[in-house]
Amino acid sequence: MIVRPRLAAGLAAGVMAAGLALAGAASAEPHKVIFDTDFGMVPQDDGYALMLALHSPELEILGITTVAGNWSLEQGTADVLRLLEIAKREDIPVYAGANMPLMHEPSEYARTTYGSWWSDAPATPPPGGFAAKQAESLGAVEYIIDTVESQPGEVTILAIGPLTNVAMALRHAPGLAAKVKQLVIMGGAVAFLPDGAGNMTPGAEFNFWVDPEAAKIVLRSGIPIQLSPLNVSRKSNMNRGWFEKLVAVETPFTKLIRERGGRLYEDDPELVVHMYDQIAVASLIDPSLVTTTELYVDVDANPGISYGTSLGSPRLWPGAEGARKIAVQHELDWVRFIEMFIERVAQPIP
Hints:
Layout: H1 12-26, E1 31-37, H2 45-54, E2 59-66, H3 73-86, E3 94-96, H4 108-112, H5 140-150, E4 155-159, H6 164-172, E5 182-186, H7 206-210, H8 212-219, E6 225-228, H9 230-233, H10 240-246, H11 252-267, H12 277-285, E7 290-299, E8 310-313, E9 324-332, H13 334-345
Parallel strand pairs: 1-2, 1-4, 2-3, 4-5, 5-6, 6-9
Antiparallel strand pairs: 7-8, 7-9
Helix pairs in contact: 1-13, 2-12, 5-6, 6-8
């Protein structure tokens, strides 16, 4: 079901072994994960993030829920279905969710800068054509509610797009927040910490800017949250050298990565690409890859020049009385992270 909401309505082997041991020590059982995404095929970070998740035994992906963000809901859903087909993981169900934010109406600025969350155009064919696999008839919001309520305290939501689906689930099912094990979010930019500028406006990061109202609801929900903002993303450094290591061995994934991502480095050999959603996924696999600080974090949902800006502080401040303390990532062990990422994503598909 498609929902259009409105608020009123060199170290590699040793490090890998250590990282896996740490993850195993932290949790003998894999994390049960709902993968909530504004999916885009590689070289979009969502595509890379799902590849990493599919190659990580620490994660059990119960289902994938899609939301409008990078692209339209229709395009994101078509792309994720195709990637699952390439991965031969058609067993993982996909649920289409919100095709618009809670309140954010598309402006001329939105239509002429990054993203097409506002579009309702039909999806264009993904690489290799549309998947035979189809999305489920159940909607994403209903799926999130049903899954969390049937397994209270066991399900982690990994949210790497606008938080519309998660916010709607919380609004539709009072008490749901207390049943979510944890929530890992890629979103926001916290000026209190280094590298805290926005990427859509001077203060606002894309995912929170697309749906600030949803972000505010989710951050104030009381769910244990690990926030992976732009601060930590900017510690990444995917240059051509790392890219060539990633695609050195050919698999269905690396072939797709080279075909779609290689042209970026051909056009600009000095290009450095930040990694976003990939870090959020990796931090769930191995929390020791990131350094976090506990902060109260809130989002400005008032229309104006700071719309979508996330603010953080060790203490509450006027206007943020409903904010909760969450773990905010701000440092990254880049070499360990990228070596783990390359080692896993470049593996043959199981």
